[in-house]
Amino acid sequence: MSAPFVELTGVAKRFGGVVAVRHADLALYPGEVHALLGENGAGKSTLVNVLAGTHRPDAGTVTVDGVEVTIPDPRASRALGISVVHQHPVTFPDLSVAENIMFAGFAPRRRTRFLDWSAVRRHAREALARLDVDLDTSTEVKHLSAADQQLLEIAKALDPDTRLLVLDEPTAALSTREVERLMKIIARLKADGVAILFVGHRLNEVFALADRVTVSRDGSTVVTGPAKEFTPESAVGHMVGRSVETVFPKVDVELGPVGLEVRGLGRRRAYADVSFAVRRGEILGLAGLVGAGRTEIARGLFGLEPADTGEILLDGAPVSIRSPQQAMRHGIAYVPEDRHTEGVVLDHSVGFNLPLALLERRPRFGLLSPQADRALAGDFIDRLRIRTSGPDQLLGALSGGNQQKVVLAKWLATDPSVLILDDPTKGIDVGAKAEVHQLVSGMAERGLTIVLISNELEELLAVSDRVITFYRGVQGPEFDRRPFDAERVLAAMTGQVSDAHV
């Protein structure tokens, strides 16, 4: 094997009193895909930011081509041949594809100091051609799919001088087909001799791509080696320090009467004639591919996108839900798919976020009580084991798993009877997933009626009591016998099985 292009040795990083990285070692070789695994809070993003020039390590060394270097800022990182694609795309939605690529560092000007727009468009086409991606460079980014926006992020980061491409959770918002497309691009870059650091949580993708694997836990590197020496189960064991069987716990609960029922629910261009009933203590899983209508159904139940037809019944009584306020008054809580834009306020504290769903219950002209809010936050921090320095810590400083716990706590504080969860473990690691699913199982034990959506079929089948499939807005077969047959569920999700009950 050739010498590593980039090597991190004994890297440590502290933020105030919080140790983000204790002792990390990482060697990245040309033409190799290196997967970095670990729970949220294991230090992965900090290492990515060290390579990007966003953070400077407090200890340890970074070498490039065998020479020790300091990376003071992102511009210096790019100059060294390091390109980083961060987990959350940073784009200008109202600008074109070409303009977004230009703002990544290419702004040709004529002698008159005006931009050379023909050169801007040519550069954008060249950047996309390197990935074999065909996008109209004049299209405004807001009109692109999530997958195309992710490819745009890679095109922005990649240039002919790139020798290391860092991909931080690049598949979180992608469908299975879009992931396959990205994998082909990664394989092409690898064949061109680019070193690739792949940070991900979906182990099936990791082991389909990686040549080498490094696992971090509690800020330290615990193991590294060829991917063939790992299995998903052993990787999980290294990440969380326990066996994979504990990641998706299923608790048997004695079911109560029907808590939620929908009859003939429909919304134009989204879904039609949806009918199901969920009992108290039951977890009903909604399975389907991206675009199957599951999220639209969830938003309809919460009044964000009210249904055009059909009826909703709670405890056997018809109710009208035309707004989130009405849904909350009826005891319905909704954890959205995108926690960052719809679930929490990242630049405010944990104590600020937790009481947000209770604001409508405050006296109309009453004053907020910081003491009561801090007490509420402290209670849920203890109950849900949220890893934070306290109610005053900024939510954006927490790991993804702990942010998701805050979202759950915010709604549990309303004492709901129906809980709708849309991809509640999206973008968090297996250890945090285990904790979230333990919380969900505990809610079912307390008699909540739960509707669960997940893009990860394995965990949906592991924690659900029943599963209903959807295909292009049409309700498909229902699976009501555990253990579920994953292959038949997947076939139903793609419209290949039509049995009413399986």
Automatic annotation (TrEMBL):
InterPro entries: AAA+_ATPase, ABC_carbohydrate_import_ATPase, ABC_transporter-like_ATP-bd, ABC_transporter-like_CS, P-loop_NTPase. Keywords: ATP-binding, Cell membrane, Membrane, Nucleotide-binding, Repeat, Sugar transport, Translocase, Transport. GO terms for molecular function: ATP binding. This is Rhamnose transport system ATP-binding protein. Pfam families: ABC_tran. Residues 6-243, 253-497 form the ABC transporter domain.
